[in-house]
Amino acid sequence: MSVSSHAGKFSAPPTDAAGRIPLIGLSLAEMQAALALHKLPGFRAKQVWHWIYQRGARDFASMANLPKEMRELLAEKYSIARPKVMTEQRSADGTIKWLLSMSDGQLVETVFIPEAKRGTLCVSSQVGCTLTCKFCHTGTQPLVRNLGAHEILQQIMHARDILGEWPQSGEKQSNEGRDLTNIVMMGMGEPLYNYDNVAGALKICMDADGLAISKRRITLSTSGVVPQIRQCGEELGVNLAISLHATTDEQRSAIMPINNKYPLAELLEACRTYPGVSDIRRITFEYVMLQDVNDTDEDAKRLTELLRGIPCKVNIIPFNSWEGSGFTCSTKDRIDAFARILENSGYDAPVRRARGRDILAACGQLKSASLRVKKVHAEITEK
Q1: pLDDT band for position 370 (cuts 50, 70, 90)
Q2: Which bin fits 15, alpha (ψ -120 to 50), beta or left (φ > 0)?
Q3: Where are the alpha helices (H) located in the chain, listed in sequence order?
Q4: Is the domain of 193 the same as that of 62?
Q5: What pLDDT shows up at residue 336?
Q6: Distance (Å, rounded) from C-alpha 33 to C-alpha 209?
Q7: Are 154 and 83 in contact (CB under 8 A)?
Q8: Both 38 and 180 in a single domain?
Q9: Distance, CA of 8 to CA of 142 (rounded, Å)
Q10: Angstrom distance (rounded) from CA 293 to CA 290
Q11: Is 212 exposed, middle or buried (0-12, 13-18, 19+ CB in 10 A)?
């Protein structure tokens, strides 16, 4: 299925349950066009934009410099609501995982990972996932639909709400002193199969008058949707991460079926020609360590040759287990030996430290609890 047909089949609902149109996710020009239908001048849209993205307003009533009649009209026709928090889990290491309910009741997970000098928010792009990577917990949940641009942004704005990071009146957006500094599109779903909504959301993230998060602090991770990789580089210019996890087509297709459509040669060529890639802006290759599957010395040596000529680093990820996966994490000695081969060949190959593992928030563990939550709700309703 092409990205365009996929977008049509799994599109996000255009309104909330009350029929209101979300203003979050609209570009400034789109917001001006929407409000012009009510004969509101362009400067009013700029005021609304400022309240939403500069001040973090969660309702129209708080927009003090708008006429009362306009606030009432906006509240009737439009929405700037946040998703409902179904659960919040906090790990022993400080990681926070939220299960968020969108306006139609669909659920996604968002994870905040605090570190000494930065804080990273792992954002979802789909309800479920269109891919079926064998080692990934999310891949066991069928794709329900794409998230709209507003739903992607709502995750970021919710995190800012919780962390108390909206500027006060008169202050400019800045990363200085913030806990949330970085965005990674590495949550539930394949971002490039929902490209238009992801791009729309990230453009507002990067807008100096929007959420003002630099493209240098945004990373998009893909399993290898080759046609959209160049488009992403040309239009967004964000950092690129590739879920690689194998060194031969046979091996990769067995654990990542997308490789049957976009084999390694095509994927790596797209990486070599990714707009803006350089020794300063390197591509990150993610490699999960699966015992007796992809973790031999021969695998490591093949990997060094596959990546030759691509400015990159390799994030080595110890497999985070989940019930029924059928995989086991490589031993520490095996992981260290694999990393050493890469490092001796001139690659940066850090071993990623698992975060939030005790709340199933680590890499590869995200899986929305939507089915379980809905089952409970159904049982309550039946009673």
Answers
A1: very low
A2: beta
A3: 3-9, 28-36, 42-49, 68-77, 149-163, 195-206, 226-235, 249-255, 264-272, 297-306, 332-344, 370-382
A4: no
A5: 97
A6: 18
A7: yes
A8: no
A9: 17
A10: 5
A11: middle
pLDDT at 107: 94
DSSP 70-105: HHHHHHHHEE-PPPEEEEEEE-TTS-EEEEEE-TTS
Mean pLDDT, rounded, for 41-60: 97
Strands 96-101 and 107-114: antiparallel
Residues 36 and 183 in one domain: no
CATH number of the domain within which 38 lies: 1.10.150.530
Residue whose structure tokens are 């071993």 = 351
pLDDT at 383: 45
Q: Please say whether the beta carbons of 270 and 228 come within 8 A.
A: no
* CA 353-354-355 angle, 5° bins: 115
> Does one domain contain both 94 and 75?
no
Confidence of residue 4 (pLDDT cuts 50, 70, 90): confident
pLDDT of residue 313: 97
pLDDT band, very low/low/confident/very high, at 380 (cuts 50, 70, 90): very low
**Active site residue ranges:** 109, 363
Q: What is the DSSP letter of 239?
A: E
- Output the pLDDT for position 228: 96
The CA–CA distances, whole Å, from 251 to 134, 245, 278 equal: 12, 9, 29
Across 216-232, average pLDDT: 97
Largest CA distance in the chain: 70
Domain span at residue 22?
Answer: 17-79
The predicted-structure confidence for 155-191, as pLDDT tens digits, reads as follows 999 999 999 999 776 556 555 668 999 999 999 999 9
The answer, yes or no, to whether residue 341 has pLDDT greater than 60, is: yes
Handedness of CA 58, 91, 126, 123 (dihedral sign): positive
Q: Are residues 109 and 203 in the same domain?
A: yes
Residues 6+ apart with CB under 8 A from 245: 133, 135, 252, 255, 256, 286, 287, 288, 290, 294
CA pair distance 165, 304, nearest whole angstrom: 42
